């Protein structure tokens, strides 16, 4: 299994799309194309291969065909077979991942709400079974409509395409979550994360956690980075900044008092760290929240 991971900080590039229904027994042509093609089955069965890999697609199945790889039908589909097809190009920031790397990223994202490795990406597998077609039908028909409309900007179809791929990615992640095995009872990570959360206001560091759980600092640093997608200090800082935002919005504590509350010895370092994470000072953040609150009264 391979996965397309593509950056969506700017929308992906739409080429064309359609809704195919065969009027007779039908065999997909043999060809090589220069873009990605997405096939989503609505009815019947399609028999198609990409290079030497053969796929039998049924209702709710998705197939991603990659550029510069030969694909063709290897058997006939019955009359009435129906599927959506969509051609698109990626921006420069895209890559094909193996299943292990893709699943590892999803697992990290599930374990760590502060991990942003998938925040600005779509993740589309070569093959995906049993998609929920309800929302996909709505989004695809919107895309079909936009592709046939004389909108003043082509960005309309690019953003619609990207929204569709985000929905597919969401379903892929949900399918992954429902299929993973039960957590290993010997896994120390959940207990470690809970300990860090409880003690984050005590100016803790990797040294404290390694002592508490009887690991060497070097091993724990590698283990935590692999499991959480960031260093332990980065994770602790995310927890502290998240708590600081809550206190700024829901208390009358001063910035200095909040820094002390969260275990920062130097309130100037707290200011610098907050600005780095939020692109706002604590005072600016509090004022922005208050304005939002007033506007919603």
TrEMBL record:
Q: Which SMART domains match?
A: HTH_ARAC
Query: What region holds the HTH araC/xylS-type domain?
Result: 190-288
Record's superkingdom? Bacteria
PROSITE patterns per UniProt: HTH_ARAC_FAMILY_2
Q: Which GO terms describe its molecular function?
A: DNA-binding transcription factor activity; sequence-specific DNA binding
Keyword terms: DNA-binding, Transcription, Transcription regulation
Q: Metal-binding among the record's keywords?
A: no
Name of the protein this chain belongs to: HTH-type transcriptional activator Btr
Q: What is the lineage of its organism?
A: Bacteria, Bacillati, Bacillota, Clostridia, Eubacteriales
